[in-house]
Amino acid sequence: MNGQNVLSFRDFTVRYGDAPASVRGVDLTVRAGEIVGLIGESGSGKTSVAMACLGLLPKQAKVTAGRFEVCATDLAGADARKLTRMRGREVAMVFQDAMGTLDPTMRVGRQIGEVIKRHRGLKGEAQRQAVVELLRRVRVPEPESRARQYPHQLSGGLRQRAAIALALAGEPKLLLADEPTTALDVTVQAEILRLLRTIRDEFGVGILLISHDIGVIAQAADRVAVMRDGEIVEQGGVEEVLLTPSSDYTKMLLRSVPRLGRRGEHAGRPAPEDRGSDPDRPALFTAEAVGRSFRSRGRTVHAVRDVSLRVHPGEVVGVVGESGSGKSTLANLLVRLDRPSTGRLRMDGRDYARLRGKRLKAFRRAIQMVFQHPAGSLNPKLRVATSVREPLVTGGTGGSEARRRVEEVLAEVGLPADAGQRLPHEFSGGQKQRIAIARAVAARPEVVVLDEPTSALDVSVQAQVLDLLLRVQRAEKLTYVFISHDLAVVQAISDRVMVMYAGRVVEVADAEALFSAPAHWYTKALLAAVPSPDPRERGGPADTAEEDTSGDRGQGCAFAARCPKAESRCRVDVPELSEVLAGHAVACHFPAVEEGAE
């Protein structure tokens, strides 16, 4: 079967009504036993291609093609019954959101078993064994017990593995993977990409890997096709396209990718002497041994533990860590959307968790927040100018002065002159984030906390927003706390970086020192897992699934179970954050600097 085409499109075009074609003249093949990467930004037509493979385009879609075949089935002539039989048996799909793919009311094993029964006819013990074997093959640890669990009881990585097992249950010849790692932490993402390569080799399936992340494609694909505005502008071998691209668009995408080791290339980045990272300067605000705990099902869960932080005027402090590390909880505490269970938060010497009345209102003006999903933070019924004006009115600024300030900040973030009179739905994702940034800086705050502000954006838009943030920082004399799981983005913008794991700070240092010589083994693992856009720098073979670290940890270092250098002491004593070099602190009994690690 290897080498045969399982997907073959020639001159494939999709048109809706009288509108111009949304997909035009696409030539694309996927062979059994290979991974073809389909790169493109939002609106490029990637998802239309995927839906066409499943016969799931809307009824109003008009398809024309010289060839339109999946697994030797001519989709143009296939009726509804034939398409239904084909889905799952010939072609299956893995979606970005595993939680949305899996039925939350059914045990994982039962869901996979139903697909096996439908397409392979297995029942009873044979079906149960097939479920366990499939979970084992996609590297789910303890597959017998995992099969009896519900989706919410699995970590994000394990849920995605279960979703992949569900897609493979009917033994398809073509697997469509639509942004399968976008919602995952970098370490889990690396494991899933290695798993896809293993599936290609062990199952012999053809895989169409759809992503806007060039690093993901570089780490997994054999061949690459680049889409723009409904057309494929370039395709070929992964090294040919990503190392020696021929189209200007591919070159632009590659230039936009933030890369570890390339720091300070953004146009708006202030000069080093202007960035305010001198530790001897007075702090603008501080967190002193801050903790936040919650009661859940009769037990206490510690989301943030003993976090101390000093932020100086004019600097950018990056905060990184996997899901569940406490980053977003800390962000909510910093802007007083939540209050700490222990410790103190001070700004200008005042404990702002206790502020009331006018002092609280003044604090609200001084510290603002930009969220990951701008559409969720903007009122869809309010015109942009009204949304941006709100913090000004709350602070006592109105009339012509407020109008002038709104016009000023909208221009500053690069929006057209008529933007203020339009509604949020009329803007692209990148433009909505610009509106959210304008709203955050309108009242001239001192600090802006940014919680994953670029993770939902295409790579070229992400680069534009990073440049914008740095230009606005200089123009408005702002201080940033920049929270992200994307280490390359954090390196590009930050002066200092704080690494969190299981609610604790495990390392903090100047960005240059941390990224060039990390001292904590968790930081080293994060850096090693970042997908390189260079296909020659691929990770090794997959071996075991990531540990499911959900839930509260007991004594000792929370990272001990995953640490290559852990000793018995690490499982008993909690390491304190202490300096190993000037300005470089780490919470580790056996830090990398003592091992002579690079």
TrEMBL record:
It is a peripheral membrane protein. Residues 7-254, 285-527 form the ABC transporter domain. Keywords: ATP-binding, Cell membrane, Membrane, Nucleotide-binding, Transport. One of its GO terms (molecular function) is ATP binding. It is found in: Cell membrane. The keyword Cell membrane applies. Residues 260-283, 532-554 are annotated as: Disordered. Belongs to the ABC transporter superfamily. This is ABC transporter ATP-binding protein.
